[in-house]
Write a structure and sequence with these properties.
The chain is α+β, with helices and mostly antiparallel strands. It has three helices and six strands; from the N terminus they run βααββββαβ. The protein has a single domain, classed as Dimeric alpha+beta barrel (Alpha-Beta Plaits). About 30% of the residues lie in helices and about 35% in strands.
Length: about 120
């Protein structure tokens, strides 16, 4: 079975500006997404909502030593807000289910690299 990482970028300023009811509507979309995955025979094996990118630390190696900076590695309006890890044999069905989450921001579906012999 193939494994995919579903990456969810979002505009954090827009998210923080939503009312509780508007946020709950977004969470309802995610619950519907999980339901559709299950109905479609996909298996969600992990996932999480992430804390705001301002809480991140970025580590780079400079001159052989780690250098730690505050925040994400890139400065943009859209930052990674969450992810799902899904196992499925139906990539097209997974993409269709992800369409539900793409109503506000794009969703990236990326295969997890496999290095085992098949």
């Amino acid at each position: 079975m193939d494994e995919y990482l579903i990456l969810l970028p979002d505009n954090e300023d827009a998210w923080e500006g939503l009312s509780d009811a508007e946020r709950e509507a977004v969470y309802d979309l995610h619950r519907e997404f999980a339901r559709r995955l299950e109905e479609g025979g996909h298996t969600m094996t992990g996932g999480a909502e992430l804390a705001p990118s301002r809480t991140a630390k970025t580590v780079r190696r400079v001159a052989g030593r780690p250098v730690i900076s505050e925040g994400p590695p890139t400065d943009s309006a859209e930052q990674l807000s969450g992810f799902y890890l899904v196992e499925t044999e139906d990539h097209d069905g997974l993409a269709e289910a992800c369409g539900l989450l793409a109503s506000h921001s794009p969703v990236e579906i990326r295969p997890v690299a496999r290095h085992d012999a098949e």
